[in-house]
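Lab meeting, action items carried over

1. Structure of the two-component assembly. Owner: GW. Status: complete.
Input record:
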Amino acid sequence: MKYDTVIGLEVHSQLLTKSKMYCRCSTDYVNDPPNTHVCPVCLGMPGVLPTINQQAVEYTIMTGLALNCTIPTFTKFDRKNYPYPDLMKGYQISQYDLPFCIDGWVEIEINGNKKKCEITRVHLEEDVAKLVHRTDSSGETYSLMDVNRAGMPLMEIVGEPDLSSPEEARLYMMKLHGILRYLGVSTGNMEEGSFRCDANISQRSAEDGTTFPKVEVKNMNSFKAVYSALKYEEERQREVIESGGQLVQETRGWLDDEGITVSQRSKEYAHDYRYFPEPDLPPLTISSERAEAIRASIPELADAKKDRFMVKYSLTEYDAELLVNSREFADYYESCVELAFGEQIAEGRAKVVANWMLGEHLRLLNDAGIEITESKITPQQFVEMLDMIDQGTLSTTLAKQVFEEVFTTGKKPATIVEEKGLKQISGTDEIEPIVDQVLQENPKVVAEFKGGKEKALQFLVGQVMKKTRGQAKPDLVNKLFKEKLQ
Amino acid sequence: MKLTDEEVKRIALLARLGISEDEVAKFRGQLSDILENFEILQEVDTSEVQPTSQVTGLRNVVKDDDVIPSLTQGEIMANAPQEEDGFFRIRAVL
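Predicted assembly:
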């Protein structure tokens, strides 16, 4: 039998607020000792009163608008009840039937085709405490709890089960990640769990439409893990069906090291959340004026930026796509282009900047494992270097050396060229004696060239480059040789 | 409304309470009585009343996104039955 895979993702992202969702504890806890960003509210003490973080609301609505959602004028919070040690109050303040954002969509591109993926809703809730599992010397296992993460603003983006392959799921996840990073509402850090997803995946017969039980997959900490876990699960489910086995509706955890999913909770543990309206938080009204004001504050997103780059800077779609990968990278590129050319963009010049950005600069960034914002090369230095190439004072080959040196030291390109003596030799007076010397030293090669072996010239040019440590201007050397050998 | 044994067991499971068969019977009676008491409220005519989850009439109560100091780790741990390396130590959960 042939099967279609049906996948829906629930994506969670912590929001980049300064304080937690319902209290004023700092959200900047990642490198701090356990239980140092905690107060009676996020510790779930009796008698405390939570209050809604205004900034988290703005970020959620902004995200919803960027995902083409409708923003209802009335919204409220609800209690989701379940007992688990990481949930301090025994309930999570979430949203049930009236979320901030509904009915949106996002577009992904798969194999050159655009596909619209529906977004059911975007709502706001709070993160839970972190558990660490340990074993003592007697072999007894126990758990340790750090409450710093509890009460972090957590935004959930619920997608329709529109995705039909693990690759689509990965692309969808990356798309959301890009949008959230562009909006500046999330760090997008998957390793730290500030951006994560749960996936529902099931099989449907392509022949008669029969549907099979769905499985919820958790614990995928990278885009690659999302793909691999769903690929594994797709194959596992098809094998179970084909071999006449019974699939059960369950939650399975992805074990990245082993490359498998394992059952986490049997069916009878299915939750009964007993949602009810949160009595501690009065509802919110969102006027259309307010929603529009938030819409106006949305920055240009990657897709729009890509289209603009292609037109304004005459870039290929491939280059433009890479340049807009992050907002910071795109901004850096534009600063360079503007510094280099002002308002007047000469034909092909923006492409040169793009080549250096996507070539040398990106390679150095990747090798060092850092972001563009951490690069020691400023846009000014970047442009200074390109100017030196244009003016003929620096060869392209040597420019790469200088580039790397600026990247490592942050020194001015001119200083490095000076210090290392890398200035290109472009004067005939300086090069001619060296050319003559090479001709004298290599009579055999000269004879070969005169005998019709064109390639011999390359050897001679190479000798000059060697003697000048790569500083001679190659086309000038070529010209001199040709003149002298005629 | 009379609860069934299965419903009582499910409620116990959701509350993570282990109860014996005797207790199932005992709590089935007690919980059913509580529900029956509440059922008396069904006699009130509410056809003209809007569903109400808030009675204060408040709207749009929010806080600015600024930080105030948290409690110290020592204060947080003051009432903890078991502590280890600044964490709450609890029974194993997986």
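2. GW to write a short summary for the group page. Key points so far: Chain A touches chain B through 50 residues (CB under 8 Å). The first strand of chain A starts at residue 3 and ends at 14.
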